[in-house]
Specification:
Blueprint lengths: L3 H8 L5 H14 L8 H14 L14 H5 L15 H4 L11 H14 L18 H12 L3 H4 L4 H9 L5 H15 L8 H8 L10 H12 L7 H15 L3 H18 L8
Helix pairs in contact: 1-10, 2-13, 3-10, 10-12
Length: 274
């Protein structure tokens, strides 16, 4: 769907290799289920998680604590208790979208438990949100639970930012990362003057500035592309990710019933049912 080298080009050399690898493999395994095989949606998604993770350097919130972080402890809107009992730090942001609060940990546990056999209880073990594949799956959960795909297909980065952040903090960098992701997905090499070249090709003023008209043109160009596929390497990586996560819980139940029926059939008299 997207290669490690492309992800590094978008965010820069400081990105952690393990995060890039986990993200590329996880998108190959699960991205299409969440509409991220559409280039215009993937560019929006990458812009958000790249910003939230410090350009793929952190899977756990950097703790000061700041004044805002101190308030986590009594943020009942995040599912934490009203008492200053340490749950703000315990359920600090983790994963690629920095899932925060006991309420989100509880909701993600319920979501993951229905889909993956052996999914952890993230309320009891919140640290596992900072490990792959859950670091990505928690971001996909948030994307789905908040219906962010509907904004992505419209190219509405501001609405997505508001949903992710609760405001517009970091909007400028999110836009910058979106432009880099969009150009990369369109097949451009990120070098000096590349945006002006795109603008010229699309009949825009080639000022090398990613204003509203240029961002709209990037979105339109991405929408014209065919859906993204994992590729051969991605398919192998996807199989490994699914093996680690486990079979979906529903499939485990189906297999169990099938095996039970087979076992029963082995003990029936010859000729089948009486």
């Amino acid at each position: 769907m997207i290669a490690v080298e492309e992800l590094r080009a978008i965010v820069g050399k400081a990105a952690r290799a393990d995060i890039l690898k986990g993200l590329a493999e996880g998108l190959a395994a699960y991205g299409a289920q969440f509409g991220l095989h559409r280039p215009e949606a993937l560019a929006q998604f990458l812009a958000q998680i790249a910003h939230e993770s410090g350009r793929f350097r952190h899977l756990e919130e950097v703790w000061g604590p700041s004044a805002a972080q101190r308030r986590y402890d009594t943020r009942t809107d995040l599912g934490n208790t009203a008492a200053p009992d340490g749950d703000g730090y315990l359920y600090r942001g983790r994963g690629l979208i920095q899932l925060t609060g006991a309420g989100n940990a509880r909701a993600f546990s319920a979501w993951a438990g229905k889909r993956f056999a052996g999914a952890p209880d993230f309320l009891a073990e919140p640290q596992k949100l900072a490990a792959f594949p859950w670091a990505l799956l928690s971001a996909l959960f948030f994307w789905e639970a908040n219906g962010l795909g509907r904004f992505a297909v419209k190219g509405d980065l501001t609405a997505i930012t508001s949903a992710v952040n609760g405001g517009l903090n970091g909007l400028s960098e999110r836009r910058h990362l979106y432009v880099r992701a969009a150009l990369t997905l369109l097949g451009y090499r990120l070098e000096r003057g590349v945006l002006a070249r795109f603008q010229k090709e699309r009949g825009l003023v080639a000022d090398d500035i990613a204003g509203p008209a240029t961002r709209a043109a990037l979105h339109a160009a991405l929408s014209e592309l065919p859906v993204l596929k994992p590729g051969a390497a991605g398919e192998e990586a996807a199989k490994e990710v699914r093996r680690i996560v486990g079979l979906p819980a529903e499939l485990v139940l189906v297999l169990a019933l099938a095996l039970a029926a087979l076992a029963a059939a082995m003990f029936l008299p010859e000729g089948g049912l009486p």
